[in-house]
Design a protein that fits this description.
Layout: E1 28-33, E2 38-43, H1 53-68, E3 74-79, H2 99-117, E4 122-127, E5 131-132, H3 134-141, E6 144-148, E7 155-156, H4 168-178, H5 180-189, H6 195-201, E8 206-208, H7 213-224, H8 229-249, H9 251-262, H10 265-282
Parallel strand pairs: 2-3, 3-4, 4-6, 5-7, 6-8
Antiparallel strand pairs: 1-2
Helix pairs in contact: 1-2, 2-9, 4-5, 4-8
This protein binds octanoyl-coenzyme A.
């Protein structure tokens, strides 16, 4: 079993867990077409686009650059990894790490959500594969979601299945997307929906054949960009600012909550069991 020292610093992960090398190659590829004002962000963090500290930092920097460019009006987020949009937060950033590391990690998770949920750009998620947990959150921060119609893929906030609790701003993003009742059931059971079920509850907006996800995302973007920009942006802020403001004013407390929760021995044990389950499933 995992053991913790008395001052909360956790032991190094056991050897069955692969520590991935921090590759220096870019984890995000951005194609920006200045004539259309649309940027495409390709996530390329093998094998499953898990949202590590490095990856999220790179995502933040790329987003900041695009947001500052007034000519950039639309952003499509997609994945270069086969079968997966994003596997969510990198569990290895939360397992066997010091409280300081966990705090730093959580701050970047907050930052990416704040930036994307409050973005002035039209944002579209081109969901070309599975999108559990943080991958689902990333999708829900966008204005519109187009998913590959393949029943092998799933999307949802499955945190309870890992023995962890989705924080209030994950929950509110989901409520804002699929309503209170759907969220209540989805979050308690940690449901991962197949595309058709996700469409039914409004977790995604459109299903298309796998090879058309990107084309349809581009066509949809063109439509969204015909709406007068200022009116659309103010409307978006009106819908989203109450949730954004809540996190902004509680940011430090939210970090403290996360750190004290995630470093608990029982939670670390749950994460470890979940990682073991992933390995066994693979075998
Ligand atoms: N973090 C780290 N490593 C991961 C993750 C992850 N989220 N997901 C998969 N991996 C690893 C696997 O262990 C495996 O490692 P290895 O090659 O060393 O054996 C490798 O990535 C490939 O994974 P699979 O073989 O499972 O790949 P598949 O293509 O078969 O499946 C899936 C892809 C569907 C994405 C599958 O990997 C999966 O279901 N992953 C787990 C997804 C998940 O449950 N993520 C939850 C993350 S927690 C989160 O995002 C929110 C946390 C909120 C915290 C709040 C606390 C208060």
């Amino acid at each position: 079993l995992l053991s913790c020292s008395s001052h909360g610093r956790l032991c190094a992960p056991p050897t069955f867990i692969t520590q991935r090398n921090n590759s220096t190659s870019p984890k995000i590829k951005v194609d920006y077409d200045q004539t259309t004002g649309v940027a495409v962000m390709h996530m390329q963090n093998p094998p499953v686009n898990s949202l590590s500290l490095d990856f999220l930092t790179e995502l933040c920097i790329s987003l900041e650059k695009l947001e500052m460019d007034k000519g950039c009006r639309g952003l499509i987020i997609t994945s270069n990894q086969p079968k997966v949009f994003s596997a969510g937060l990198d569990i290895l950033e939360m397992y066997g790490k010091s409280p300081e590391h966990c705090g730093e990690f959580w701050k970047v998770v907050q930052e990416i959500w704040l930036k994307l949920y409050g973005s002035n750009m039209v944002t579209i998620a081109a969901i070309s594969g599975s999108s559990p947990a943080g991958g689902c959150l990333l999708s829900m921060t966008c204005d519109y979601r187009i998913m590959a119609d393949n029943p092998r893929y799933t999307i949802g906030l499955n945190e309870t299945q890992l023995g962890i609790v989705a924080p209030f701003w994950f929950k509110e993003t989901m409520v804002n997307t699929v309503g209170h009742r759907n969220t209540e059931v989805a979050l308690q059971l940690g449901l991962l929906y197949k595309p058709a079920e996700a469409l039914k509850i409004g977790l995604v907006d459109q299903l298309v054949p796998e090879d058309q996800v990107f084309t349809v995302a581009t066509q949809t973007m063109t439509k969204w960009l015909t709406i007068p920009e200022h009116a659309r942006q103010i409307t978006k802020s009106m819908m989203r600012n109450p949730t954004i403001d809540k996190l902004r004013t509680n940011r430090e407390a939210d970090i403290q909550n996360f750190v004290s929760f995630i470093t608990k021995e029982s939670i670390q044990k749950s994460l470890r069991m979940y990682m073991e389950m992933l390995k066994q499933r693979k075998a």
